[in-house]
Amino acid sequence: MPAMSYHRPASVAEAAKLAASDPDARVLAGGQSVLPSMKLGLLAPSAFIDLAGIGELQGIRADGKTLTIGAMTTHASVADSQEVRTKIRALAQLAAGIGDSQVRNRGTIGGSLANSDPAADYPAAVLGLGASIRTNKRAIAADGFFKGLFATDLNPGELITAVEFAIAEKAGYEKFRQPASRFALVGVFVAQVGKAVRVAVTGAAACAFRVKSLEEALTKRFAPEACDGIRVSAATLNSDIHGSAEYRAHLIPVLARRAVQKALG
Q1: Residue 138, pLDDT score
Q2: Residue 218: which of 234, 202, 207, 230 has the closest Cα?
């Protein structure tokens, strides 16, 4: 293994400066994706920039309209948070279903979003709830954040600092998990915020995306039956050893129906 440097910055500004100065450095926000990639020979970073010591990136805060989660907040913390359970129960349930206990206690919401794994759970929640991804430079609307396979709207040296969620009247998440990895073969997050209904899908394509036909049907009638008969095109969906594009397309309205059932309690 080639020699590399290790940095443990004390602030977001210091971390961003380090990241901008070395394009071959990798930010550690939990290490659940970086380290496996190194083992496979896909990454050979010149340096690690470990965000674990930056207190301003951690914590969960809520007011009457929004729920804000720091980028370095672990999946386990989100799952166990009474604030999250009270404000957006579906988000806590989603976090509780990520990987296993070791992954949940190391992985972070900011790391998951910055990596934009096509089968990760959080992108569906962020897109489904119309969240705002805050960085050290700006706020990015969820609809413009995910750009493709492991690709986001983040610029070099730009770090996620927090995610701000609107409080949904109703929300539910359902995934068909790959039994070994527990990643989503397909996952669907449904949320009703005000009069609008958003339906976001993960695991089915290169990155998370919304399904307008399901949104329109559920806006007219927020009930499981509204998902019946909706067909999703398989043209841009993933095919692999775990499932064909057609199979994933079939799963989307089925899982949306179950997510609505969860949202209705």
Answers
A1: 98
A2: 230
Q: Is the pLDDT of residue 225 over 90?
A: yes
d(CA 42, CA 19): 19
Query: Domain containing 249 — which CATH number?
Result: 3.30.465.10
Percent of the chain topping pLDDT 90: 86
Query: DSSP character for 176?
Result: E
Tokens encoding 35: 């380290």
Q: How many domains does the chain have?
A: 1
Give residue 201's domain range. 5-263
Cβ-defined contacts of 215-223 (< 8 Å, 24+): 218/190, 218/192, 218/256, 218/260, 219/195, 222/170, 222/192, 222/197, 222/260, 222/263, 222/264, 223/260, 223/264
Q: What pLDDT shows up at residue 32?
A: 84
Alpha carbons 166 and 36: distance in angstroms, whole number:
33
Nearest to 134 by CA among 76, 61, 212: 61
N residues, the chain? 265
Q: Taking the complete model, does pTM exceed 0.70, yes or no?
A: yes
User: What is the spatial distance between Cα 135 and Cα 116, in angstroms, rounded to a whole number?
Assistant: 15
